[in-house]
Design goal:
GO molecular function, one term (chain B): ATP hydrolysis activity
Protein name (chain B): Cell division ATP-binding protein FtsE
Largest sheet of chain B: 6 strands, mixed
Order of helices and strands of chain A: HHEHEHHEHEHHHH
Strand content of chain A: 5-15%
Strand order of the largest sheet of chain B: 6-7-8-3-9-10
Largest sheet of chain A: 4 strands, antiparallel
Structural class of chain A: alpha+beta
Function (chain B): Part of the ABC transporter FtsEX involved in cellular division. Has ATPase activity.
Number of helices of chain A: 10
Subunit structure (chain B): Homodimer. Forms a membrane-associated complex with FtsX.
Family (chain B): Belongs to the ABC transporter superfamily.
Oligomer: heterodimer
Largest interface: A-B, 18 and 23 residues
Low-confidence stretches of chain A: none
Helix content of chain B: 25-40%
């Protein structure tokens, strides 16, 4: 009886303010989706950081014959230079391990990395691949002294610090998540105001009913619940749309990023997506309830 | 049943009190007319009984409860024991007679079986048998007021407050309305009726409390509306 009555009231209210309800649903959907995307990017970034920082190393590429890098002067590195470099690297402070990668290994790695483009693989010969040292650091943040120590040494063509490359990418993702969250906060505010207005309109439309309910002694909860439910249902529908947007984002954006990084990268799982959807829906409903109650206190004297 | 002790009510932004040190007692089962010109404080009296307004000073007891001590949470329970009828009927235009009366029970969570049993009884009590499925705009003013009375009485309140119930109704129909009020009073319900209608007050010969400028100027049992009018 009770539930029946409340739901019929809610349905009438939602239908009477159809355009307002649609506005609420859209705002909540976009706002919650933005919030969700921001949270997902944050999760992804922290997952990537733990994954990559373990593997960060410095690559010291050595000269090949006919190299275009000016430091090489077009000459290949000599075995003596290679030996000297290895000794120098191993003697540096903060260096954990030094691996030597010869041309054959480099070529094999290159072949696996560019499996997708056979023309490129065919055009490349083993002799084109540079030899290199891979340097692992005790503290990945402290790469500067090592880079300085080997840069410009005879036989060195290029020194590459992976962390610098990765950090650029992380900075971009961080910015993206910051903007998504900023937009989300603005939209959540807009949603709260819209819900407030919808509830106010509903309260005005039904002032006869609520007046009589007050008079015959209906409890405050009973009078207010249909209005609050209206906000909650609009918020929930918005939340469902937000969930759909998040699932699409996961498939189109995050799996794309994962594909870009290649296999073995820490992937954002469906469990994180489900968690984010739950969180955003919860926030959406709480905001709807709060906005409704605050409005009712002003416009529905009990 | 209703006990006012030295009650004063001043509305915000008004210098003159709407009720000025009013003390009055209404016993269980009494029928009381509240008379006086517009602005004399009749409606304020009724609103105070419902705890729609709070007095500035003085104590009000309704059905044994001190209203000053009654928490907002319990006000709805107080109102369930008080029925209300107004000059403008206040029916829901999109509900028929039966639904209008049943609404009062639905919103306080009464079971459907109970509603199906008592609503037809009350519709018959107010003399609207056979009209349960009419819409309010298909009824005369007198009939609409009977619906309002059925709604006010359906939960068997201890007190029925009527604020000029015959104000929008012609004298001949008013007699019928008064008969229904009298019938409700005979079931043991205390009735307080604010009115301007001298003919009705004179014909009923019930207790009359007269207000003027917020003060009680007369309180007599089996009274008439007054010589001045």
């Amino acid at each position: 009886m009770r539930a029946n009555f409340i739901f019929s009231e809610v349905w009438i209210g939602l239908r009477r303010n159809l355009t307002m309800t649609i506005a609420v649903v859209i705002t909540v959907a976009v706002g919650m989706a933005m919030l969700g995307v921001g949270l997902l990017i944050n999760t992804q970034v922290s997952m990537l950081k733990t994954f990559w920082y373990d593997k960060v190393e410095i690559s010291v590429f050595l000269c090949t014959k006919g190299s275009a890098i000016p430091a090489c002067n077009g000459k290949a590195v000599t075995p003596a230079q290679t030996k000297a470099l290895e000794a120098r690297l191993k003697g540096l402070q903060g260096v954990k391990e030094v691996f030597y990668e010869d041309q054959t290994t480099a070529y094999d790695n290159f072949k696996t990395a560019y499996q997708g483009s056979p023309t490129l693989v065919e055009a490349t010969r083993v002799e084109d691949m540079p030899q290199s040292f891979r340097v692992k650091l005790v503290d990945p943040d402290n790469y500067q002294p090592v880079v300085q120590a080997v840069k410009g040494q005879p036989g060195v063509s290029q020194v590459m610090d992976h962390k610098q490359l990765i950090n650029k990418f992380f900075d971009m993702l961080d910015k993206l998540s910051f903007y998504a969250l900023a937009v989300a906060i603005i939209l959540v505010l807009a949603a709260a105001l819209l819900i407030g207005n919808t509830v106010r309109l509903s309260a005005f439309n039904r002032r006869r009913e609520t007046g009589i309910m007050r008079l015959v002694g209906a409890s405050n909860l009973y009078i207010q619940l249909p209005f609050v439910m209206e906000g909650v249902i609009a918020g929930l529908i918005g939340g469902v749309f937000a969930a759909i947007i998040l699932i699409v984002t996961k498939v189109l954006l995050f799996e794309e990023i994962a594909g870009y990084f290649g296999s073995g990268m820490a992937q954002l799982g469906w469990d994180s997506v489900a968690q984010t959807i739950t969180v955003t829906m919860g926030i959406g409903v709480v905001i709807c309830v709060l906005a409704s109650f605050v409005t009712l206190r002003r416009y529905l004297r009990v | 049943m209703i006990h006012f002790d030295n009650v004063t009510k001043v509305y915000a932004n008004q210098n003159r009190p709407a009720l000025d040190h009013v003390s009055v007692d209404v016993d269980k089962g009494e029928f009381v007319f509240l008379v006086g010109p517009s602005g004399s404080g009749k409606s304020t009296f009724l609103r105070l009984v419902l705890k729609e307004e709070r007095p500035n000073s003085g104590a009000i007891h309704v059905a044994g409860k001190d209203l000053a001590r009654l928490s907002n949470f319990k006000v709805p329970h107080l109102r369930r024991r008080i029925g209300c009828v107004f000059q403008d009927f206040r029916l829901l235009p999109n509900k028929n007679v039966y639904e209008n009366v049943a609404f009062a029970l639905e919103v306080i969570g009464k079971p459907r079986r109970f509603i199906r049993k008592v609503v037809p009884e009350v519709i018959e009590l107010v003399g609207l048998e056979g009209k349960a499925h009419r819409m309010p705009d298909e009824l005369s003013g007198g009939e609409q007021q009977r619906v309002a009375m059925a709604r006010a009485f359906v939960n068997r309140p201890m007190i029925l407050l009527a604020d000029e119930p015959t104000g929008n109704i012609d004298p001949a129909t008013s007699i019928g309305i008064m008969k229904v009020l009298d019938r409700i009073n005979r079931t043991g319900t205390t009735v307080v009726m604010a009115t301007h209608d001298a003919a009705i007050v004179d014909s009923m010969r019930k207790r009359v409390v007269e207000l003027e400028d917020g003060k009680i100027v007369r309180d007599q049992s089996r009274g008439v509306y007054g010589q001045a009018y």
